[in-house]
Amino acid sequence: MLWALPKESYVVRIFSRLLSKFGTAVKFGVSMSEYRPRINLRKSVFVMALVIVLMAVAGWLLARESFYQMFEAIKSANHLLIASAIAIYFLSVAVWAARWQTALSFIKCRISLGTRYLILCATIFLNNITPGVRVGGDPFGRLYMVHKLENTSYSSGMASLIGERALTPLIVISFLMAGLLLQFEKGPLRLTLILIAAWALAAFGAVFIPRIFFRKRIAVKGISSITGRVLGWFGKRGEVQEIVDGIEAFYSDSYATIDKWKKLLSIGSLTLLLGALDVFRLYIIFLALGYHPQLSTLLIASSLPTIVGLIPFLPGGLLLVEGSLISVLTAFGIPLNLALAVTVIERGISFVLSTMVGAGVFSYLGVKMAAKPKVQTKQRCV
């Protein structure tokens, strides 16, 4: 059967090969009878309470409104504009691929645009079937694929992933703060100053903390010790020096992607363009439904669900993203039936369609990786 797991599952093999970068081969041989899960009761109760509240709010809102109006709004939508929104989404993937190559170039790596694009489509599929929006397939899924297809070292691959996402938190938070400032521009001065101070603090943290962390090689020994201990749980600890060398190579490559302002500016510009395309796609969806939203609404609606969706509860941020998007839109005066229609179309593009395309691409890359001959000699980058 297709759903039956083999003796050593594909996911287990991925993590076994990922851990081999630290100088040892690992075999997972833990039976279900030996596994004792640790449950964080407080965190579990919080997540369940949050989901219950979101479902209760959604139920209360839906009870006041007929689904018929939402479906009518979707049926009457401008199909050409919906197609444009889909095209903008896949254009965003191309921009993402360009940003990734920018980070790769800083550590002297070169991967073709086609390969990068396909890997990112497959990564989106992995993101959508694992808890947390936009992060589930990273770093392990993308890291494994680029290693198998391009024979890049794990330290270089991981460094490129960290480098290309270095300013993503800053851009997302900046969009949120800009939307709040525009929305409450006539509010009290104290609120404006609080928002500006929060943005400045987030900007400082996003730009300087990673740079200091990798430059000073903070916690190298601690991370190496933890890695060795984790490897020991699986039956083979490995040489301590080999583990330290692997961690130091990762630190060095990571710092190479963020050590100069010119590099950060290049990555930041492409990250800003990605955020602008997300806002523009949402605007096109509104236009397709015959509504002209305010810029503040678009900025908040494109950033807040991304932050909320990072909570690792359901695959692809399900429920959390939809609930937060509907809540934001209705809070800023968008009629509920229209907010529902926008959410259905947006998630239909960014979740359903991207998952279908990504699944096909992931299957293709899986066949390609299986057919690719094994290369014994690994370089830090190719």
Please state the average pLDDT score.
75
Strand content: under 5%
Radius of gyration: 22 Å
Number of helical stretches of at least 4 residues: 15
Secondary structure layout:
Layout: H1 10-19, H2 41-63, H3 67-75, H4 79-106, H5 113-129, H6 140-150, H7 154-164, H8 168-183, H9 189-215, H10 220-233, H11 240-256, H12 261-288, H13 295-308, H14 320-331, H15 336-371
Helix pairs in contact: 1-6, 3-15, 4-5, 4-7, 4-12, 5-6, 5-15, 6-7, 7-11, 8-9, 8-12, 8-13, 9-11, 10-11, 12-13, 13-14, 14-15
Would you mind describing this structure in some detail?
This protein is mainly α and 382 residues long. The protein has a domain at 68-153 and 262-371. The chain has 15 helices and no strands. The longest helix has 36 residues, at 336-371. The model is unreliable at 1-12 and 18-39 (pLDDT under 50).
Compact overview of the structure:
The protein is mainly α and 382 residues long. The chain is built from 15 helices and no strands. Helix 4 runs antiparallel to helix 12, helix 8 (168-183) crosses helix 13 and helix 9 crosses helix 11 (240-256).
Features:
382 residues; mainly alpha; globular; disordered N terminus
